[in-house]
């Protein structure tokens, strides 16, 4: 088996394992965090539709949970990566409105500021937002993030 096939097999096992963990999770916090991780796995594997659906399900099922704010940030990052500034802006503004005075709303405000600067000075400002953290990170450290680093 080649490296690519082995990696795909490992990710398939990770997806199945994560879905099983979600089914067995007892509390809303645990379940929503496991769902975030599953969305990250989908996003990492470039399964954008499944990632978006997973993040949207978190927002729908756990609208007041911190995981919903994080899911919205991941969705905003996906829209940014797909060149959808209006959708990105709408999602970031939603985080600010629905989760005021939280680290996630601060992250969203920073993202909007970067977008404003880029629009005002397209030749001198950064034209893209930094990527959201990778799938191995349970919670985003910042959005816009500071890079893709794993945490224990």
Task: Describe the model.
Helix 4 (66-81) runs parallel beside helix 6. The chain is mainly α and 152 residues long. The protein has 6 helices and no strands. It has helices at 3-24, 28-44, 48-61, 66-81, 85-98, 103-120.
Concise structural overview:
Helices cover 66% and strands 0% of the residues.
Number of helices: 6
Low-confidence stretches: 133-152
DSSP summary, beta strand count? 0
- Our measurement of the CA-to-CA distance between the termini, rounded to an integer number of angstroms, reads 29 Å
> SSE string, helix = H, strand = E?
HHHHHH
Helix content: 55-70%
Percentage of β-strand residues: under 5%
Radius of gyration: 16 Å
Calculate the mean pLDDT score and round it.
80
Structural class call reads mainly alpha
Major sheet details: none
Topology:
Elements: H1 3-24, H2 28-44, H3 48-61, H4 66-81, H5 85-98, H6 103-120
Helix pairs in contact: 1-2, 2-3, 2-4, 3-4, 4-5, 4-6, 5-6
């Amino acid at each position: 088996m080649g490296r690519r096939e082995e990696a795909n097999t490992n990710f398939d096992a990770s997806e199945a394992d994560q879905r099983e963990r979600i089914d067995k999770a007892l509390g809303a916090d645990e379940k929503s965090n496991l769902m975030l991780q599953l969305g990250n796995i989908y996003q990492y594997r470039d399964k954008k539709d499944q990632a978006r659906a997973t993040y949207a399900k978190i927002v729908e099922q756990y609208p007041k949970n911190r995981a919903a704010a994080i899911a919205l940030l991941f969705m905003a990052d996906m829209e940014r990566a797909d060149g959808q500034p209006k959708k990105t802006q709408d999602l970031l503004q939603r985080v600010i409105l629905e989760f005021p005075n939280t680290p996630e709303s601060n992250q969203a405000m920073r993202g909007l500021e970067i977008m404003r600067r880029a629009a005002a000075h397209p030749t001198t400002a950064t034209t893209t937002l930094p990527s959201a953290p990778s799938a191995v990170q349970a919670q985003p450290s910042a959005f816009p993030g500071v890079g893709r680093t794993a945490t224990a």
